[in-house]
Specification:
Keywords: Repeat. The chain has helices at about 10-35, 70-80, 365-370, and strands at about 45, 55-60, 90-95, 100-105, 110-115, 120-125, 135-140, 145-150, 155-160, 165-170, 180-185, 190-195, 205-210, 215-220, 235-240, 245-250, 255, 265, 280-285, 290-295, 300-305, 310-315, 315, 325, 330-335, 340-345, 350-355. With about 375 residues, the protein is mainly beta. About 40% of the residues are buried. The protein has a single domain (about 55-370), classed as TolB, C-terminal domain (Neuraminidase, 6 Propeller). The protein is built from three helices and 27 strands. The longest helix is centred in the first third of the chain and has 28 residues, at about 10-35. The strands form seven sheets. Strands 1-2-27-26-25 form a five-stranded antiparallel sheet, with no helix packed on it. The protein has a four-stranded antiparallel sheet with strand order 3-4-5-6, with no helix packed on it. Helices cover about 10% and strands about 40% of the residues.
Length: about 375
Protein backbone atom coordinates (compact mmCIF):
# COMPACT_ATOMS: atom_id res chain seq x y z
CA UNK A 1 0.00 0.00 0.00
CA UNK A 2 1.22 3.46 -0.94
CA UNK A 3 2.26 5.59 2.04
CA UNK A 4 1.82 9.36 2.04
CA UNK A 5 4.87 11.55 2.50
CA UNK A 6 5.33 13.13 5.89
CA UNK A 7 4.59 16.93 6.07
CA UNK A 8 8.08 18.33 6.69
CA UNK A 9 9.15 21.66 8.26
CA UNK A 10 10.50 22.86 4.91
CA UNK A 11 7.09 22.25 3.39
CA UNK A 12 5.46 24.33 6.09
CA UNK A 13 7.87 27.21 5.44
CA UNK A 14 7.15 27.07 1.73
CA UNK A 15 3.40 27.38 2.35
CA UNK A 16 3.85 30.28 4.79
CA UNK A 17 5.97 32.18 2.25
CA UNK A 18 3.31 31.87 -0.42
CA UNK A 19 0.57 32.85 2.03
CA UNK A 20 2.48 35.98 3.04
CA UNK A 21 3.04 36.93 -0.61
CA UNK A 22 -0.66 36.49 -1.32
CA UNK A 23 -1.60 38.76 1.61
CA UNK A 24 0.85 41.42 0.44
CA UNK A 25 -0.52 41.28 -3.08
CA UNK A 26 -4.12 41.58 -1.88
CA UNK A 27 -3.22 44.43 0.50
CA UNK A 28 -1.36 46.23 -2.25
CA UNK A 29 -4.34 45.96 -4.57
CA UNK A 30 -6.73 47.34 -1.95
CA UNK A 31 -4.39 50.25 -1.16
CA UNK A 32 -3.99 51.10 -4.82
CA UNK A 33 -7.76 51.21 -5.32
CA UNK A 34 -8.22 53.65 -2.39
CA UNK A 35 -5.38 55.92 -3.53
CA UNK A 36 -6.56 56.05 -7.13
CA UNK A 37 -10.16 56.95 -6.31
CA UNK A 38 -10.55 60.57 -7.51
CA UNK A 39 -12.26 63.26 -5.45
CA UNK A 40 -15.63 64.15 -6.90
CA UNK A 41 -16.60 67.73 -6.04
CA UNK A 42 -20.20 68.16 -4.86
CA UNK A 43 -22.61 69.29 -7.58
CA UNK A 44 -26.04 70.91 -7.35
CA UNK A 45 -28.56 69.64 -8.00
CA UNK A 46 -27.15 66.16 -7.30
CA UNK A 47 -27.45 63.31 -9.84
CA UNK A 48 -29.44 62.22 -11.73
CA UNK A 49 -30.37 65.85 -12.49
CA UNK A 50 -27.93 67.77 -14.70
CA UNK A 51 -25.55 69.85 -12.52
CA UNK A 52 -25.88 73.62 -12.53
CA UNK A 53 -23.29 74.50 -9.89
CA UNK A 54 -20.06 72.78 -8.85
CA UNK A 55 -18.12 73.28 -5.63
CA UNK A 56 -14.85 74.87 -6.73
CA UNK A 57 -12.67 75.49 -3.67
CA UNK A 58 -12.44 76.74 -0.10
CA UNK A 59 -10.53 79.85 0.99
CA UNK A 60 -9.33 79.95 4.60
CA UNK A 61 -6.04 81.86 4.71
CA UNK A 62 -3.35 83.64 2.71
CA UNK A 63 -1.78 80.31 1.69
CA UNK A 64 -4.78 79.69 -0.56
CA UNK A 65 -3.69 82.49 -2.91
CA UNK A 66 0.05 83.16 -2.36
CA UNK A 67 2.42 80.82 -4.17
CA UNK A 68 5.06 79.10 -2.07
CA UNK A 69 8.63 80.00 -3.04
CA UNK A 70 11.39 77.41 -3.48
CA UNK A 71 13.16 78.27 -0.23
CA UNK A 72 10.03 77.89 1.87
CA UNK A 73 9.11 74.66 0.13
CA UNK A 74 12.57 73.18 0.76
CA UNK A 75 12.53 74.24 4.41
CA UNK A 76 9.17 72.58 4.98
CA UNK A 77 10.38 69.43 3.24
CA UNK A 78 13.35 69.25 5.62
CA UNK A 79 11.51 70.18 8.83
CA UNK A 80 8.18 68.51 8.09
CA UNK A 81 6.28 71.68 9.02
CA UNK A 82 2.84 72.43 7.64
CA UNK A 83 2.43 75.58 5.60
CA UNK A 84 0.81 78.41 7.57
CA UNK A 85 -0.59 81.84 6.75
CA UNK A 86 -2.95 84.56 7.96
CA UNK A 87 -6.42 83.14 8.47
CA UNK A 88 -9.88 84.27 9.48
CA UNK A 89 -11.11 84.65 13.05
CA UNK A 90 -14.67 85.85 12.42
CA UNK A 91 -15.35 86.56 8.74
CA UNK A 92 -18.61 88.23 7.78
CA UNK A 93 -18.89 90.49 4.73
CA UNK A 94 -17.54 89.77 1.24
CA UNK A 95 -17.19 91.61 -2.06
CA UNK A 96 -15.46 90.64 -5.32
CA UNK A 97 -14.05 92.54 -8.28
CA UNK A 98 -12.27 90.93 -11.24
CA UNK A 99 -10.69 88.08 -9.31
CA UNK A 100 -9.92 90.11 -6.19
CA UNK A 101 -11.88 88.89 -3.18
CA UNK A 102 -12.36 91.15 -0.15
CA UNK A 103 -13.42 89.47 3.11
CA UNK A 104 -14.16 91.45 6.28
CA UNK A 105 -13.09 90.00 9.64
CA UNK A 106 -14.78 91.70 12.60
CA UNK A 107 -12.40 90.22 15.20
CA UNK A 108 -9.20 90.87 13.25
CA UNK A 109 -10.62 94.36 12.51
CA UNK A 110 -9.43 94.27 8.95
CA UNK A 111 -10.27 93.27 5.39
CA UNK A 112 -8.38 90.35 3.86
CA UNK A 113 -7.78 90.82 0.12
CA UNK A 114 -7.12 87.71 -2.00
CA UNK A 115 -6.04 88.57 -5.54
CA UNK A 116 -6.11 85.35 -7.53
CA UNK A 117 -4.93 86.63 -10.93
CA UNK A 118 -1.89 88.24 -9.28
CA UNK A 119 -1.45 85.54 -6.60
CA UNK A 120 -1.29 88.28 -3.98
CA UNK A 121 -2.59 88.79 -0.44
CA UNK A 122 -2.87 92.07 1.45
CA UNK A 123 -4.97 93.75 4.15
CA UNK A 124 -7.12 96.88 4.18
CA UNK A 125 -7.90 99.17 7.11
CA UNK A 126 -5.44 97.68 9.60
CA UNK A 127 -3.37 100.83 10.20
CA UNK A 128 -3.80 103.66 12.72
CA UNK A 129 -4.77 106.35 10.21
CA UNK A 130 -8.20 107.76 9.33
CA UNK A 131 -9.04 104.54 7.49
CA UNK A 132 -8.59 102.34 10.57
CA UNK A 133 -11.42 99.84 10.98
CA UNK A 134 -13.01 98.89 14.30
CA UNK A 135 -15.68 96.34 13.32
CA UNK A 136 -16.10 95.81 9.57
CA UNK A 137 -19.36 94.18 8.51
CA UNK A 138 -21.00 94.74 5.11
CA UNK A 139 -18.82 95.21 2.00
CA UNK A 140 -19.49 96.35 -1.56
CA UNK A 141 -17.52 97.37 -4.65
CA UNK A 142 -18.38 99.80 -7.43
CA UNK A 143 -17.65 99.36 -11.14
CA UNK A 144 -14.04 100.52 -10.70
CA UNK A 145 -13.35 98.16 -7.81
CA UNK A 146 -13.37 100.80 -5.07
CA UNK A 147 -14.25 99.20 -1.75
CA UNK A 148 -17.05 100.36 0.59
CA UNK A 149 -16.99 99.06 4.17
CA UNK A 150 -19.58 99.44 6.92
CA UNK A 151 -17.87 99.97 10.28
CA UNK A 152 -20.42 98.93 12.90
CA UNK A 153 -18.46 100.25 15.89
CA UNK A 154 -17.57 103.60 14.30
CA UNK A 155 -21.14 103.82 12.91
CA UNK A 156 -20.05 105.04 9.53
CA UNK A 157 -18.92 103.89 6.09
CA UNK A 158 -15.33 104.01 4.89
CA UNK A 159 -14.27 104.08 1.23
CA UNK A 160 -10.99 102.71 -0.13
CA UNK A 161 -9.44 102.29 -3.55
CA UNK A 162 -9.19 98.83 -5.08
CA UNK A 163 -5.62 98.63 -3.74
CA UNK A 164 -6.64 99.50 -0.19
CA UNK A 165 -5.85 103.23 -0.06
CA UNK A 166 -8.22 105.19 2.17
CA UNK A 167 -10.38 107.73 0.29
CA UNK A 168 -13.14 109.09 2.53
CA UNK A 169 -15.68 108.46 5.28
CA UNK A 170 -19.45 108.74 4.81
CA UNK A 171 -22.07 109.42 7.56
CA UNK A 172 -21.62 111.77 10.49
CA UNK A 173 -21.76 110.90 14.17
CA UNK A 174 -25.35 110.16 15.14
CA UNK A 175 -26.51 109.43 11.58
CA UNK A 176 -26.66 105.66 11.99
CA UNK A 177 -27.96 103.45 14.81
CA UNK A 178 -26.69 99.98 13.84
CA UNK A 179 -25.18 99.97 10.34
CA UNK A 180 -24.65 96.47 8.98
CA UNK A 181 -24.84 96.29 5.17
CA UNK A 182 -24.19 98.41 2.11
CA UNK A 183 -24.87 98.62 -1.61
CA UNK A 184 -23.30 101.13 -3.99
CA UNK A 185 -24.27 102.48 -7.40
CA UNK A 186 -22.12 101.20 -10.25
CA UNK A 187 -20.49 104.61 -10.77
CA UNK A 188 -19.77 104.95 -7.06
CA UNK A 189 -21.72 108.17 -6.66
CA UNK A 190 -24.30 106.90 -4.14
CA UNK A 191 -24.21 104.46 -1.24
CA UNK A 192 -27.16 102.69 0.36
CA UNK A 193 -26.34 101.95 4.02
CA UNK A 194 -28.52 99.41 5.80
CA UNK A 195 -29.33 100.65 9.31
CA UNK A 196 -30.64 97.66 11.23
CA UNK A 197 -31.97 99.63 14.19
CA UNK A 198 -32.89 97.47 17.16
CA UNK A 199 -35.74 95.86 19.05
CA UNK A 200 -36.81 99.19 20.59
CA UNK A 201 -35.66 101.46 17.76
CA UNK A 202 -37.96 102.83 15.05
CA UNK A 203 -35.00 103.33 12.70
CA UNK A 204 -35.15 100.19 10.57
CA UNK A 205 -34.18 101.70 7.23
CA UNK A 206 -31.75 102.22 4.37
CA UNK A 207 -29.98 105.60 4.37
CA UNK A 208 -28.79 106.97 1.03
CA UNK A 209 -25.76 109.28 0.74
CA UNK A 210 -23.81 111.06 -1.96
CA UNK A 211 -20.24 109.80 -1.69
CA UNK A 212 -18.39 112.87 -3.01
CA UNK A 213 -19.96 115.30 -0.53
CA UNK A 214 -21.17 112.96 2.22
CA UNK A 215 -24.62 114.55 1.94
CA UNK A 216 -27.57 112.52 3.20
CA UNK A 217 -30.04 112.34 0.30
CA UNK A 218 -33.04 110.33 1.52
CA UNK A 219 -34.14 107.25 3.45
CA UNK A 220 -35.84 104.10 2.22
CA UNK A 221 -38.39 102.47 4.51
CA UNK A 222 -39.33 102.55 8.15
CA UNK A 223 -40.16 99.93 10.74
CA UNK A 224 -43.13 97.75 9.79
CA UNK A 225 -44.34 94.73 7.85
CA UNK A 226 -45.88 96.35 4.78
CA UNK A 227 -44.38 96.82 1.34
CA UNK A 228 -41.29 99.01 1.60
CA UNK A 229 -41.10 98.64 5.39
CA UNK A 230 -38.42 96.77 7.34
CA UNK A 231 -37.89 94.76 10.48
CA UNK A 232 -34.18 94.33 11.28
CA UNK A 233 -32.78 94.66 7.74
CA UNK A 234 -29.18 93.45 7.58
CA UNK A 235 -27.74 93.48 4.05
CA UNK A 236 -28.12 94.85 0.53
CA UNK A 237 -26.77 94.58 -3.00
CA UNK A 238 -27.10 96.24 -6.40
CA UNK A 239 -28.69 94.42 -9.32
CA UNK A 240 -27.72 94.73 -13.02
CA UNK A 241 -30.46 97.31 -13.63
CA UNK A 242 -29.27 99.47 -10.74
CA UNK A 243 -32.10 98.43 -8.44
CA UNK A 244 -31.26 97.82 -4.78
CA UNK A 245 -32.18 94.55 -3.09
CA UNK A 246 -32.41 94.54 0.72
CA UNK A 247 -32.41 91.57 3.10
CA UNK A 248 -35.37 92.27 5.41
CA UNK A 249 -34.28 89.75 8.04
CA UNK A 250 -37.02 90.18 10.64
CA UNK A 251 -39.72 89.96 7.97
CA UNK A 252 -37.98 86.94 6.36
CA UNK A 253 -37.97 88.35 2.86
CA UNK A 254 -36.02 90.22 0.19
CA UNK A 255 -37.31 93.61 -0.96
CA UNK A 256 -36.36 95.31 -4.22
CA UNK A 257 -36.34 99.08 -4.81
CA UNK A 258 -35.47 101.42 -7.66
CA UNK A 259 -32.34 103.56 -7.16
CA UNK A 260 -34.68 106.35 -6.01
CA UNK A 261 -36.25 104.18 -3.32
CA UNK A 262 -39.52 103.17 -4.98
CA UNK A 263 -40.74 99.71 -3.90
CA UNK A 264 -40.74 97.10 -6.70
CA UNK A 265 -41.44 93.69 -5.15
CA UNK A 266 -40.67 91.28 -2.32
CA UNK A 267 -39.47 87.67 -2.37
CA UNK A 268 -39.85 84.86 0.15
CA UNK A 269 -41.46 84.61 3.56
CA UNK A 270 -41.00 82.82 6.87
CA UNK A 271 -40.73 79.03 6.82
CA UNK A 272 -38.49 76.04 6.24
CA UNK A 273 -39.80 75.10 2.81
CA UNK A 274 -38.05 75.74 -0.50
CA UNK A 275 -38.19 79.43 -1.35
CA UNK A 276 -38.77 80.50 2.25
CA UNK A 277 -36.32 81.95 4.79
CA UNK A 278 -35.42 81.35 8.41
CA UNK A 279 -32.32 83.54 8.93
CA UNK A 280 -31.55 85.29 5.63
CA UNK A 281 -28.14 87.01 5.61
CA UNK A 282 -25.92 87.48 2.56
CA UNK A 283 -27.27 88.48 -0.84
CA UNK A 284 -25.87 88.73 -4.36
CA UNK A 285 -27.18 89.16 -7.91
CA UNK A 286 -25.65 87.83 -11.13
CA UNK A 287 -25.47 89.55 -14.53
CA UNK A 288 -28.82 88.04 -15.57
CA UNK A 289 -30.62 89.33 -12.49
CA UNK A 290 -30.85 86.00 -10.65
CA UNK A 291 -30.87 86.53 -6.87
CA UNK A 292 -28.73 84.51 -4.42
CA UNK A 293 -29.59 84.51 -0.70
CA UNK A 294 -27.58 82.82 2.07
CA UNK A 295 -29.54 81.50 5.05
CA UNK A 296 -27.72 81.01 8.37
CA UNK A 297 -30.28 78.45 9.56
CA UNK A 298 -30.27 76.28 6.43
CA UNK A 299 -26.51 76.28 5.81
CA UNK A 300 -27.02 77.02 2.11
CA UNK A 301 -27.92 79.66 -0.43
CA UNK A 302 -31.08 79.73 -2.53
CA UNK A 303 -31.25 81.02 -6.09
CA UNK A 304 -34.27 82.88 -7.47
CA UNK A 305 -34.93 84.17 -10.98
CA UNK A 306 -35.51 87.93 -11.48
CA UNK A 307 -39.25 87.42 -10.93
CA UNK A 308 -38.61 85.79 -7.55
CA UNK A 309 -39.26 82.15 -8.52
CA UNK A 310 -37.03 79.59 -6.81
CA UNK A 311 -34.55 77.91 -9.15
CA UNK A 312 -32.19 75.95 -6.91
CA UNK A 313 -30.57 75.68 -3.49
CA UNK A 314 -26.84 75.03 -3.10
CA UNK A 315 -24.92 73.64 -0.13
CA UNK A 316 -26.14 72.07 3.09
CA UNK A 317 -25.83 72.37 6.84
CA UNK A 318 -22.99 70.10 7.92
CA UNK A 319 -19.55 69.38 9.31
CA UNK A 320 -17.55 71.99 7.41
CA UNK A 321 -16.40 69.81 4.52
CA UNK A 322 -16.80 70.85 0.87
CA UNK A 323 -20.19 72.57 0.36
CA UNK A 324 -21.05 72.12 4.07
CA UNK A 325 -21.82 75.18 6.20
CA UNK A 326 -23.01 75.92 9.72
CA UNK A 327 -23.32 79.71 9.97
CA UNK A 328 -23.38 81.39 6.53
CA UNK A 329 -23.10 85.17 6.45
CA UNK A 330 -21.96 87.31 3.50
CA UNK A 331 -22.40 86.31 -0.14
CA UNK A 332 -21.17 87.72 -3.46
CA UNK A 333 -21.38 86.82 -7.16
CA UNK A 334 -18.64 87.74 -9.66
CA UNK A 335 -18.80 88.46 -13.38
CA UNK A 336 -17.94 84.83 -14.19
CA UNK A 337 -21.02 83.68 -12.28
CA UNK A 338 -18.98 82.22 -9.41
CA UNK A 339 -20.66 82.44 -6.01
CA UNK A 340 -18.74 83.14 -2.80
CA UNK A 341 -20.31 82.34 0.58
CA UNK A 342 -18.81 83.16 3.99
CA UNK A 343 -19.16 80.71 6.88
CA UNK A 344 -18.53 82.37 10.25
CA UNK A 345 -18.51 79.14 12.26
CA UNK A 346 -15.97 77.25 10.13
CA UNK A 347 -14.12 80.49 9.27
CA UNK A 348 -14.00 79.93 5.54
CA UNK A 349 -15.24 81.09 2.17
CA UNK A 350 -16.79 78.52 -0.14
CA UNK A 351 -16.56 79.09 -3.89
CA UNK A 352 -18.97 77.59 -6.45
CA UNK A 353 -18.83 77.90 -10.21
CA UNK A 354 -21.59 77.39 -12.77
CA UNK A 355 -21.34 73.93 -14.29
CA UNK A 356 -20.97 75.44 -17.77
CA UNK A 357 -17.94 77.51 -16.66
CA UNK A 358 -14.70 75.60 -17.07
CA UNK A 359 -12.35 75.83 -14.05
CA UNK A 360 -9.61 77.06 -16.39
CA UNK A 361 -11.51 80.14 -17.54
CA UNK A 362 -12.38 83.56 -16.16
CA UNK A 363 -10.63 85.26 -13.28
CA UNK A 364 -9.31 81.97 -11.85
CA UNK A 365 -7.60 81.03 -15.12
CA UNK A 366 -4.12 82.27 -14.09
CA UNK A 367 -4.14 79.86 -11.15
CA UNK A 368 -5.02 76.84 -13.25
CA UNK A 369 -2.39 77.63 -15.86
CA UNK A 370 0.39 78.13 -13.30
CA UNK A 371 -0.14 74.81 -11.57
Amino acid sequence: MHKSRPFTQSGKSFIWIWAALAILLVSGCVTMEVEEKPFEPPVFPPPPDPPRFVWDRTIQSSVDVVEEDTTESFRRMVTGENRSGEGFRKPYGIAVHKGRIFVGDSVNRTIFAFDFPERRFFKVGDDDGPGMLLKPLGLATDGSGNLYIVDASARNLKVYSRDGEYITTVAKKGDLDRPTGVAVSKDGSKVYIVDTGGVRSPNHRVRVYEVATGEHLFDIGKRGTGDGEFNLPNNATRGPTGNILVVDGGNFRIQEFTPNGVFVKSIGGIGRQFGQFSRPKGIGVDSEGNIYVADAAFGNFQIFDPQGRLLLFVGARGDGGPAKYFLPAGLAVDDDGRVYIVDQFYRKVGVFRPANVDPGTGYFAPIIKKK
